[in-house]
Structure formats: structure tokens, C-alpha cells
Fold this sequence. Notes:
Elements: H1 2-13, E1 20-23, E2 35-42, E3 48-58, H2 60-64, E4 69-70, E5 76-77, E6 81-85, H3 89-98, E7 115-119, H4 126-142, E8 147-149, H5 157-167, E9 171-175, H6 177-181, E10 184-189, E11 195-199, H7 203-228, E12 230-232, H8 237-245, E13 250-255, H9 259-269, E14 272-275, E15 297-302
Parallel strand pairs: 7-8, 7-9, 12-13
Antiparallel strand pairs: 1-2, 2-3, 3-6, 4-5, 9-10, 10-11, 13-15, 14-15
Amino acid sequence: xxxxxxxxxTIENVLAIPVLPGRKSESERFPGAxxxxxxxxxxxxxxxxxxxxxxYLGQGFARTFDVRYAGRDGSEQYPYAxxxxxxxxxxGGVVMAHGDDRGLRLPPRVAPQQVVIVPILREDERAExxxxxxxxxxxxxxxxxxxxxDDRPExxxxxxxxxxxxxxxxxxxxxxxRDLAAAAVTVARRDxxxxxxxxxxxxxxxxxxxxxxxxxxxxxxxxxERERRTxxxxxxxDEMIEYLREASGFVxxxxxxxxxxxxxxxxxxxxxIRCLPLGDEPAPSGGCVCCGRPAVTxxxxxxxx
Length: 305
């Protein structure tokens, strides 16, 4: 499971998307696999996205394709195989997990440009402003920040602000004559829209702190949204189906393990079991949410992409 943990670490700590680890039910496993492990994320529209999977294939594929190797004793043996995958669907996951009505909101650790500096240019002060913007950009680059100076003369500042918000750049630095006179810069956060002025002398440290805060805030916001959209232990099958039918989010409920109940939920709501808990979690008390028989595990259902 080491690589599966690497996937989870990357998705949560770089892409700022909280994931729910688990294993697939028998009907949802990769065809031919002995077991399938998954990382499930919830998007802002209430649908689940399978962001990474790991499959234990046993010897089935090796036997089917007659793949063998010589063991230490010289005898031919069939290898045990695994399969792992996290694909470009993560690009869509970042958009759907963090985007808002104004466009992208990119986590700083994955953003191509973490900071954009927009100098407010007036013809009589143009050279001075560009020099100050370039100096600040050099300071930030030396601190490891990915930064761009938008000094395009054909566009007004308002156009640039909107364009970089649409592209999801985490921080925008506005540098105008008044800022320069006050030896300060104005920093705008893409995630919250908050603006604040910071002294130019400590811009490097302040930008680093703010980028870390944006990263953490996006992860926290996505986690809060997932929690808000998770229905735990529904009071009835009808409540569960109504919630799933509307693609309102995750439903966590006891399940008897029978395929018949799994199929029934899918037919009634288009939702599937996204994952079953890992480890040695105790069996849930009470009956299956679908049929009332004794539950053997807890299942997480949702509509999915």
C-alpha cells in the first residue's frame, strides 16, 4: 500500500483535495482483481470522483497470459501482480474541488504561477514602477516563489486582475505609485478575495506565509464541504435514496454485504458503493440500511463521475 499512500499524500498535501481511502465492493473491483483499493474525493456538486486506485491482481493475469519466472530453486512460477493508477482526471478534480463562479482557485503548491505582480503604470512613472516590480519579483524567485510580472501595456489593471483571477493564481500583488510611496504592496488572495497591505521590506516572508495559509485554507474548505455533504446513518432507506438521487454527496450507512442490496440502491438512485472502510473497524451495530439484515460493514455510497 506504499504507493497508495503516496497518492493520498500528493492529492491531499499538493492538490489540497481531501480523500476517503477504502476498498471496493466485489462488484466495483477492477475486473479480474482480487482486491481494489481506492481514494474517493467529493466534488463541489455533490458527486464523487475516484482519484486513484490500486489493484491486487493475484496470479490471475499471469496464468491467463502464461507469464512465468524462474524461482530461486529453478522452478517456474507465476508472479503475483499489482496495478496502480492516478491519471489526468486529477486535473478535473482540482477544477471541480476548488473552482468557483469566478474561475479557478489553484492550490499554491500546484499553481504554475503562485504570484502575479501587476504594476499600476502611469507614463511618467512607468520606468520606476517596472524597476520596483522586477526587483520584488527577483526577491520572490530567490525565495523559491513562482512569480510573473504582468507589465503588458495594452491591458488596463482591471482586465489583468480579472484574467488572473479566472486562471486561479493564488496571490496577486498590486504595486502602484501610492504603494511605492508608502514602501508597501497590496496583496489580494484568490481564495478569499481578501486584500491587505504589507511593508515592501518584509514582502518575501509575508508572501511565503500567505501562500502556506492559502494552501491550508483550500484543503480545509474542501474538507468542510465534504463533511457538509455527508449524510451519516440515514434514518430510513427512503431518506438515503432521496439524498443520493439528488447527488447531494456521500451517504455512510451499514450494509449487509449482499449484492442484491447494492444493485437495488443503484437502480433506485444511480449511486454506487464508492468504498468500504480499510483495516479492522468493528462491524456496525444495527441492520443494513437496505434490507434490515445484520450489517457486516459500513459502506459509502454516492453518485460518481
